[in-house]
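Re: Re: ligand-bound prediction request (bumping)

Still looking for help on this. To restate: I need the protein modeled with iron/sulfur cluster bound, output as structure tokens. Inputs repeated here so nobody has to scroll up.
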Amino acid sequence: MYNPKSLKAEEFISHEEILETLEYGEKNKHNAELIDSIIAKAKLRKGLSHREGAVLLDCDIPEKNEEIYKLAEQIKKDFYGNRIVMFAPLYLSNYCINGCVYCPYHAKNKHICRKKLTQEEIEKEVIALQDMGHKRLAIEAGEDPVNNPIEYILESIKTIYSIKHKNGAIRRVNVNIAATTVENYRKLKEAGIGTYILFQETYNKESYERLHPTGPKHNYAYHTEAMDRAMEGGIDDVGIGALFGLELYRYEFAGLLMHAEHLEAVHGVGPHTISVPRIRRADDINPDTFNNGIDDDTFAKLVACLRICVPYTGMIVSTRESRKCRERVLHLGISQISGASKTSVGGYAEPEPEEDNSAQFDVSDNRTLDEVVNWLMRLGYIPSFCTACYREGRTGDRFMSLCKAGQIQNCCHPNALMTLKEYLEDYASEDTKRIGEELIARELKTIPNEIVRKKATEYIDNIIHGKRDFRF
Ligand code: SF4
Ligand code: SF4
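Reply:
Sorry for the wait, this slipped through. Here it is.
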């Protein structure tokens, strides 16, 4: 029944295979010999299968777990250096006809404030985001063919790309909208989107159907097969994720890896990103009513094991997580974080009035972008506003083959420094600017290729003199 090459959801995410995987992990959690051999394989940096990953996730030998954490940290350093890519979500509309029981936008919630941004409001929001320093957005909208048809999403993307305020520009728009048709994915591709993101929420079909009792999202197969349709529509970069807390985390972990294996087997390219959101409190949602919540230690182990299993895939953590938790998982594998996020519809240009409350979930990390950038640099990271790959056409398998050959490093590091420099020149506070200048001076020296080093230094000098948008 289990077949990663199948295009049927229940065959590439086989429930029986996941159950056997969980049993295999549980049975081998003390098997030092097997764990050693899996760690040795992981050191080759070519990834691991879902079964191998499950053994590492379940492993409860403290010394082996230390090795797992160290290896995750090393792989993170090898593939991503000390760079962290920054982005912000932009909620366009919270109209939704689905009945997801964990989300306050569910159709039966009659007291939440429903909003949909007009193109003029989007313009204001984008200017506010540009004025913070953001270059990369993830747009979000509920599923509602009347209020949020694909034409509205396409028009909004066009508006976002068209706004150039002072030195600002949104250079990459990632899209997080409901599963749709190949034709609509093709339209999104033509509109120039970056990554198409869709969270599975849970890979367990029975739970999925219970948690999505009404609306088109109830259809497990249509939702689970969405990434195949997106790729058929020409979208190269897709981002998957599961909402941790709905089902057993071990089940979702295996499901995520099987989904990645499926995309690789069918399309020759795995997911561009994996997100690991955990359920948060929101309007009429109490996370305590879901009994599969995971603590911070388990969350860290999960991130570390994903990092080891899919070394080429970016990993995202949002402002759902606290500063402390984000700090911990940054070391273990996270490569992208959001900063200064608003999870309400609008709210960047002007704070949302208290009585409105259109937010999807409570934010745990409420710091400004400048504070987040400053914090990252103090931790030794380079906050990056880079969007070069998508704009240079390095997407899908082109991106992955460069990444697997270790070549992407020659672009990411100088691009991170140049985009950070733009940020420092245009938006940073005095203190952030001071720390950033020191960091750039230090990091420039570490670029091994002399030609790239000279070019990057020259570009940075040009940025000081008012020029923008250099990239490798
Ligand atoms: S999770 Fe998405 S589809 Fe479900 S109710 Fe919320 S906005 Fe709608
Ligand atoms: S060069 Fe490409 S992979 Fe590297 S940070 Fe920029 S967009 Fe991402």
